[in-house]
What we know:
Blueprint: H1 10-15, H2 20-31, H3 51-63, H4 65-82, H5 94-97, E1 130-131, E2 136-137, H6 150-153, E3 200-202, E4 212-214, H7 261-275, H8 295-310, E5 324-327, E6 329-331, E7 339-341, E8 351-352, H9 356-366, E9 373-378, H10 385-397, E10 406-411, H11 424-428, H12 440-448, E11 453-458, H13 484-492, E12 501-506, H14 512-515, E13 521-524, H15 530-543, H16 550-558, H17 561-566, H18 570-586, H19 596-609, H20 615-628, E14 633-635, H21 642-650, E15 654-656, E16 664-667, H22 670-683, H23 713-721, H24 735-751, H25 759-772, H26 775-783, E17 788-790, H27 798-810, E18 815-818, H28 826-833, E19 838-842, H29 845-858, H30 861-870, E20 876-878, H31 881-900, H32 908-911, E21 915-918, H33 921-935, E22 944-946, H34 956-964, E23 975-977, H35 985-994, E24 1004-1006, H36 1014-1023, E25 1032-1034, H37 1042-1052, E26 1060-1062, H38 1070-1079, E27 1083-1084
Parallel strand pairs: 9-12, 9-13, 10-11, 11-12, 17-18, 18-19, 20-21, 21-22, 22-23, 23-24, 24-25, 25-26, 26-27
Antiparallel strand pairs: 1-2, 3-4, 5-8, 5-13, 6-7, 14-16, 15-16
Helix pairs in contact: 8-10, 15-16, 15-18, 16-18, 18-19, 20-22, 22-23, 23-25, 25-26, 25-27, 27-28, 28-29, 29-30, 31-33, 33-34, 34-35, 35-36, 36-37
Amino acid sequence: xxxxxxxxxxxxLLNSDADPLHLYxxxxxxxxxxxxxxxxxxxxxxxTINCEQFSKLLQDMEGDEETREAYANIAELDQYVFQDxxxxxxxxxxxxxxxxxxxxxxxxxxxxxxxxQRPQKxxxxxxxxxxxxxxxxxxxxxxxxxxxxxxxxNQEPVSSHLYLExxxxxxxxxxxxxxxxxxxxxxxxxLLPTLPQGLLQISGAGTGLSSVLxxxxxxxxxxxxxxxxxxxxxxxxxxxxxxxxxxxFAPSAADLPSMPxxxxxxxxxxxxxxxxxxxxxEGPESPxxxxxxxxxxxxxxxxxxxxxxxxxxxxSSPLVAMELVRARLERGSNKSQERELATPDWTERQLAHSGxxxxxxxxxxxxxxRETQVVAVLGKAGQGKSHWAQMVxxxxxxxxxxxxxxxxxxxxxxxxxxxxxxxxxxxxxxxxLQPLAMDDEVLGHIVRQPDRVLxxxxxxxELEAQDGLLHGPCGPLPPxxxxxxxLLAGLFQRKLLRGCTLLLTARPRGRLAQSLSKADxxxxxxxxxxxxxxxxxxxxxENSGTAGxxxxxxxxxxxxxxxxxxxxxxxLCRAVCQLxxxxxxxxxDTQLPGTLTGLYVSLLGPAVRDSPPGGLTELxxxxxxxxxxxxxxxxxxxxxxxxxxTWAVTRGLVQPALGTAEAQLAFSSFLLQxxxxxxxxxxxxxxxxxELPQYLALTPRKKRPYDNWLEVVPRFxxxxxxxxxxxxxxxxxxxxxxxxxxxxxxRYLKRLQLGTLRAGRLLELLHCAHETQEPGIxxxxxxxxxxxxxxxxxxLTPPDVHILGRALETASQDFxxxxxxxxIEPSRLGDLVGLSCVTSFRAxxxxxxxxxxxxxxxxxxxxxxxxEEKFTIEPFKAKSPKDVEDLDSLVQTQRLRNSSEDAAPxxxxxxxxKKLEFALGPxxxxxAFPTLAKILPVFSSLQHLDLDSLSENKIGDEGVSKLSATFxxxxxxxxxxxxxxxxxxxxACKLAEALPALAKSLLRLSLYNNCIRDAGAKSLxxxxxxxxxxxxxxxxxxxxxAAGAQQLASSLQKCPQVETLAxxxxxxxxxxxxxxxxxxxxxxxx
Length: 1086
């Protein structure tokens, strides 16, 4: 049988039994047709192609466009075949990802322990390596490689720095150099281009070859017996345009993304020049060494690790270990298309207990070859995101992240510079890493192995070019240099450093959420609990050398519940510690202030009193202007005088910016910048008095003069305007100006209609009213609170819960609260539920049951009783399997309660439920409905059961059968909606049999858009006269014919109580339907 090229796709070629080397030889024959006849020779000592033919072949291949396209197709074939393999080291994505890589050789020479069986027509392969003038080929097994030292043949996989030490060559009588081919056993192929002098090991999947070593270059001749049987295969030439590659299957540098041509070839050429043994060398041993990382690369890595380890501990570090929480984005509740951070229930939170290891594990589990992974860590200002990011780089510097060769920590405030002169090295080696320098060799090494790079962009919200980075136009990345926006777009769109891990830290607001909609994983930095705040205060006083004042400071904090609630923020907790320490050092019997404004006025009072003339005003103006540009750092030259600069640094108002080599300063905390910005607004004359209320951010966004990036400014502004004249602003603003601003804000706050405000703005209004400390304003606001307050979907922080509870206590009326999807802590939920003015509340089922269990364990029987009686779930809509599971848990709680307590009444939440909707969709609906059907009999007051709710649940005939069994217990059910549930005649018959149990209560029955035919219509027609209370029945869009319609119409004549029978369906001729309607006008065809 003549050997020819198989027809079909790449996969058919791979699955065929043809030897790739034979196929390559056939391609050579076809290319050289008409030049010279080439025959397959069975003699091992006969060349199949001479040097002249070989040179001419290369010239023809270089000048042939089709040949170059063929090489590109082969490269695509390699990427397709090997992208899903699970091999380690170089065998993963081997041709594309690791050509020119400086990783060592993990399993350089592994024996081929099991050889596959070849087709019977093929001769028995030889296991002896053959040395030729250009190649050394043979099985890479220990038994057939006597020339390699144990360092080569027994190499074990270790870290990425693996070297091949000396290899022993045995001299002997020379053999002919023309021996250049050998038929080899079936096995794997692996290409290692970093071996010295083109030494290659072949051991990949699906190639039809065993492990093979190919040595390209001059070698001492080796004495070895060579069998004469078996066909010969021509040696593999170098691929055109692929320096250093001896395989036609290797792609060119142009095929490799983000890999410059010099970076591909420099190390190979260098190795061949320095380590290629001379053919004249003789002796028993000749060392062959694998190339290490370039000295400059190793030196840069060690310098980077040393710099991270030498960074001092930040003064604003949280001092308390915090666990990250997995988060997700969801579409906002308003009409805009913006996505925002979802607010899970307290019990739904998924804590990353393993910390950084779990964060990176999520990335590893989802990683695809050559695919960039984006991880975002979100949190409010001052939550400790930057400290956490710095700890990641320090963890790598200590050698605890071996999966990364390089970790780059980049503060974004030192990157946002205008211009179009950005290079990749500017991003990887920002001013924060100076005096470290990244030369071309280091950059080339990093670009060739992006999967070994972790890039951390800290404080990403400070960049102006953040929106739309993940949704830019497709196409190649513009050549460097480019704008910084283009550089970021290349990273986010997986075009630059493709395969790296990108870690972002940012605040969860503004346009950032749009850029992170396609992030692979999102985590959130949670707030401090009360216990963590107390631990923070203890550590602060221990580190400051005043551990004896811990208890006194905790007493001050616990004596001010407002500040205790605000201690969920590490930055604010630090400010409380600083003020507590100052008060304790004075030795006076005092207490902490009751507002945020009072806290910072007391904390900065000494600094204000000794400030240079105009110093505070100048710094406050800078804080406001930088905040409007979403920045928190400033150049030293922006402060006009050295005196002001020295005063601000000495008093701790600003500090040297971390991660910058230039003379940059940063505000010591975000809250301090907000306070100084509010100082500028309160005392400047550039803003007219009537424009001042717009800065409270209570008006619609389109009418605001700024985007509220400094989110705490409204509270500080309200507090500063109403501060006592002797404090803070008294020395800066004339009394007449202050009085005028007070009147403007007072008039504005009293004119607001609280019923028109959304939940978030209502909470902000309460905070601003509290900061004023004006009894008239506070009482006016609280008296206007509506009786029903819904915070559905609005995140409630501990300060929000505290200020809301205080407002409810002040108002002289009863309230009902909707606290679903607020993320409220169970303990804070108990504080609100315990208020006598709260008569009912709705909250997450799981969170409420956690609260009940906690109160039961604490022995709070009175509060537990109030929490059970006030809790309601009316109406209840199940939109996820968790909702059904939580409802089932509530029923089980009642059953346990009734079994443990004699004559215990039913839970009001279950007893009073009247409307239940089930909307899980066609996939989850059939799975979750059996659980719901099992607990339905418990809801004895259920009047409305909607199993459609604009969603096709498709419970089917089996679901209808389970539902029908509950009808005897649902004695007051008035509405039953079974539309769009894939009910057939079987289900209709089951339903008709059970409907008499609801004869006295059921008013409305809907079977719209099901699969009921004539048999089912007949069953419903027979039971219709028994439904004495039924008023409306809908059977439209089913599949019964005119016969079924006539039976329903005839039965309707016996039911005078029925008001409407809707039964239009496309399977009934329109004339028949019109005739039936003429007979009985109660038949609706709409």
